[in-house]
């Protein structure tokens, strides 16, 4: 059994400035009732208040049912206070992490969505 999941922007959270798009298929073994997946959050050092990301489940297969909870809001809690004195992109760790997230999702889109193939590199990170 499986179902598709995807995150969606809301009025308070947008992909790229607050989080990295999460989308894919969750595959369940017989008797399995839960799964997890990565949701990369942008920790940008700017106080902006909490953000709400929408997560939706779609297209269950193999006789699965999603029940009443097909969508849920995920709150990104703002952990910043005060205006930063430097640009977060000047911090090498932040800069590399953001590019890794962008590369990771681009890799998923190009390999999984266009070919339907999940290679071992991607599967190890899912």
List keywords for this structure.
126 residues, alpha+beta, 4-stranded antiparallel β-sheet, elongated
Question: What does this entry look like structurally?
Answer:
A four-stranded antiparallel beta sheet has the order 2-1-3-4, with no helix packed on it. Helices cover 22% and strands 23% of the residues. It is elongated, with a radius of gyration of 17 Å. The model has no long low-confidence stretch (mean pLDDT 79). It has two helices and four strands, in the order ββββαα. The protein is of the alpha+beta class. It has helices at 92-115, 120-123; strands at 2-8, 23-27, 51-61, 71-76.
Q: Compute the gyration radius: what is it? A: 17 Å
The succession of helices and strands, N to C, reads EEEEHH
Category by helix and strand content? alpha+beta
Mean pLDDT: 79
Main beta sheet, described? 4 strands, antiparallel
**Beta strand count:** 4
Percentage of residues in strands? 15-25%
Kindly state the percentage of residues in helix. Answer: 10-25%
**Oligomeric organization of the protein chains:** single chain
Rough shape?
Answer: elongated
Strand order of the largest sheet: 2-1-3-4
Low-pLDDT ranges = none
Distance between the termini: 17 Å
How many helices does DSSP assign? 2
């Amino acid at each position: 059994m499986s179902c598709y999941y995807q995150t969606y922007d809301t009025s308070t959270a947008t992909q790229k400035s607050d989080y990295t798009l999460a989308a894919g298929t969750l595959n369940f073994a017989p008797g399995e009732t839960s799964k997890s997946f990565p949701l990369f959050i942008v920790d940008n050092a700017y106080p902006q208040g909490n953000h709400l990301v929408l997560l939706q489940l779609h297209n269950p297969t193999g006789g699965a049912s999603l029940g009443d909870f097909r969508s849920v809001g995920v709150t990104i809690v703002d952990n910043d206070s005060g205006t930063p004195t430097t640009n977060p992109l000047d911090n090498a760790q932040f800069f590399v992490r953001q590019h890794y997230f962008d590369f990771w999702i681009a890799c998923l889109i190009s390999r999984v969505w266009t070919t339907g193939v999940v290679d071992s590199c991607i599967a190890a990170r899912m």
